Amino acid sequence: MKKSNFFWVGYSDLMTSMFFIMLVLFFITVRQLYKRVGVLEKEKEILETVQKNVEKLKDNEELFAYDSKFKRYTLKFDVQFKSNKCEINALEMLHFNETKQKLKDTGTELKKIIDNLAELKKNDKRYQNISYMIVVAGSASRIGEEDNNYSLSYLRAYNLYKFWRDDMKIDFDAPKYHNLVEFQIAGNGTGGVGRIAPKNGRYTRKNQRFIINVIPKLGEM
Length: 221
Fold this sequence. Notes:
The chain is an alpha+beta fold. Helix content is 45%, strand content 15%. Strands 1-2-5-3-4 form a 5-stranded mixed sheet. Strand 3, helix 3 and strand 4 form a beta-alpha-beta unit. The longest helix has 53 residues.
């Protein structure tokens, strides 16, 4: 056989081998893509379930208002303190009796979110690495001393946490909740976004409010 024929036979065998290698790699790639798509679909399902659990707050229209612009919840009812006051009691708050019950209802609704997640984690291993971060932030008006408003707003949020803990026996920072929720207390003072503008140059007590952020933490997703 001529040398040129040996070359073309060898070349043909090489190309055939390359074809089969590429074919095998193609099937492996497609298989991996299908597996990845399956994982993404499961992760999407988990995310949607966790998010819907939070969105149940919207169902309680008497307590919560969702701010779609800033993606957060504010309490729909007024929480008004007397000037330079921060305690959750009748001496330091206006309209205390009405406000007290609504603050209790708010704590109950937040607890429901955590309890629902605990049930999911108990019954489905896919939710083991899922938790929430709940941030309760106080916000102050410009009524009173300017420099004191930041500490006041934090203390108001801290006292709300203590109110839930002491009056309702709901401690969102208790060890039993640590794998379910990271609970944070914050104070926005007179800063932050989405504040209610003054009217006729007069500041409003409506900026004395609580802002609640409930953020899903998705582990390794």
